[in-house]
Structures are given as C-alpha cells and as structure tokens.
Amino acid sequence: MVGIITALVIVLAIIALTQVVKVYETSSALEENRNNDVSHKDNNTQGRLFLAFGILFMASFVAMIWAWGDLTLGTPGSEHGADYDFLWDLSMGTIILVFVLVQPILFYFAYKYRGVKGRTATYYEHNNTLEFIWTIIPAVALAVLITFGLYTWSNVMTPDNSEQEPIVVEVFAEQFKWTARYSGEDNQLGYANVRFIEGANSLGIDKSDDKGFDDIVVRDGLVLPKGRPVLFKFRSKDIIHSAFMPHFRAQMNCVPGMSTQFQFTPSLTTAEMRQDAGIIEKVNRINAIRAEAGKDAYEFDYVLLCNKICGASHYNMRFPITVVTPEEYDEWISEQTTFAEAQ
Fold it and tell me: Given strand 302-306, what is the order of strands in its sheet?
C-alpha cells in the first residue's frame, strides 16, 4: 500500500511540475510579446533614422565621386577607345541618374509613411498608366543601351581594315609571364603547339612550318606602331589567363588549347601619352606617394596585365608596351632576331 501511495505522489508531483512549467512558458511568451510589440515611438524613431541614413548615404556618394572620380583611366590609347568610353559613360550616366532620382525617394518614403497612431494604409490595387510608364521607360532605355552596345562591340571586334593589313602578333601566356611573337615579313604566324615546347623553343613553334621561320620572339615587352592596326592572337600554356591592356581598352581571355584574338589600332605614342594632362597629374600623385615610401619615381608606360587570378604570382604578370612612330617601329623590327636565326 505504501508503494502505491508513493508512486501516486510521484505521478502527481510530475503533473504539478509540468503545469508549473506550462504556466511559466505562457507567462514568458506573453511578456515577450509585450516586449516585441512595436510602439508608435519605435516607428517614429526608425523613420527618422531611415531619413538620416538616406541623407548620409547620398552625401557619401557625392563625396566618393568628388574624391576618387579622377582616378579613371582617362584618355584612351586606341582608336576604338573613344567609342568604348562613350558607351561606358552612357551606361554609367544612365545608372547614376536613376540612382540619384530613386534612392532619395525610397528613403524619404520610409520616413513619410512610417507607422503613425491613427493612420491606416490605403488599399491601391492597380493603375494602368503607372504600369505603362515604369515598363516602357526602362524597356526603351535598355533597348538603346543594348543596341548601341552591340554596334560598338561589332565595330571593336570586326574593324574595317580595308586600307591597311593588320600586323599579326601572338601573345603567349603562362604562369607567370608573357611572351610575344611577331609574324615577320610574311605577316603570317607559323603553327605552334604546346606539345612542341622544348629547350629554347618555349612557344612550341613547329620547326617544319616554313611560315614560322621569320617569326620574331620577344620576351622583354611589346613594341607597337602608332596608326597601324595590330591583330593579337592569344594562347595559354597552362591555365586561363586574361590579356588586359587597360589604356587601349582591350581584354581577351587566353585559353589553353585554343586561340583567341583582339584587334586595335594604337592612336597615341608612349611619348605623346606621357604629355597628356590627366596622365601627368596621375604620375605626379603616384610619385608623391612613392617618395614618402622612399621608392624610385614612376614613369608612365602602357602595360599588358593578367586580369585573371591565375596563381600565387599573378601580380607579376606585367608586360611593358611601347608605342612608337611607324618609322621607329620599322627600325626596331628590322633589328630583331628571327626564329630561324635563333635556332
């Protein structure tokens, strides 16, 4: 009998404890709900904070444009660069215009239509005129940008070379350097394949192809003539690299196992670009920073970079480019050693 009574007491104690826990949970939930209730004061505070943040946000945008807006590339060094820059300016101008118009409205509406005691939201189902406006305007803007973009892309990728045959130059990428190969007097590159790489033949030029005998291998930098089109052929030995020549507004991936290409016509020699007001200002700013760090002065040069993160020494893939007059280029190319002579 004592055992039964003991068991009954234990069961009742468990039931009582369970009820106490339920009561505690219910009271806690009610207290939490009261704490989580959004008051009119909270709404007012959040609305004002949104407005203040919006003002600071737009002010910071203007401040960044003012502080760093002059750090863009500036004058292009290729003939197609002006069209490229105009397309960039048109696209960014449209984006910034919409941004400046829309963002302040969004922040202001968050403040204006914050929760206020006694005010209820208005049910607004549909308006055909508004739907038409905010559908047609973006559609027209995008159509203009896309059409002009395709036109610019077509002119850049398939330029008219009816007057002058482009100089063919191969750019060969590997971890972590660039090598260039000029097509020589016949203006035709000999066949090359990474399987033929051996010893001094670092580009894998096929020794049985007569077209490659007059090719010229250059390892210390590109030299290009002003005003003459240059057709670049890109190859890669190992992984995907990206040949990036920012001042010429040119970039193309170098893909193992295939050849890609990009063509442009240099419009300013290196010496002329060094006299550009924007370049002079940038060089002075850079040299002021370098002087503080105890480094040698910097002088502007065109450059070929890798724009893919291709490994630990990716940053070392810098290849100088010098643009000279056609006469200086002809003199330079005549002094170079052909592949046949090097063999």
Answer: 222-225, 318-324, 302-306, 241-245, 250-254
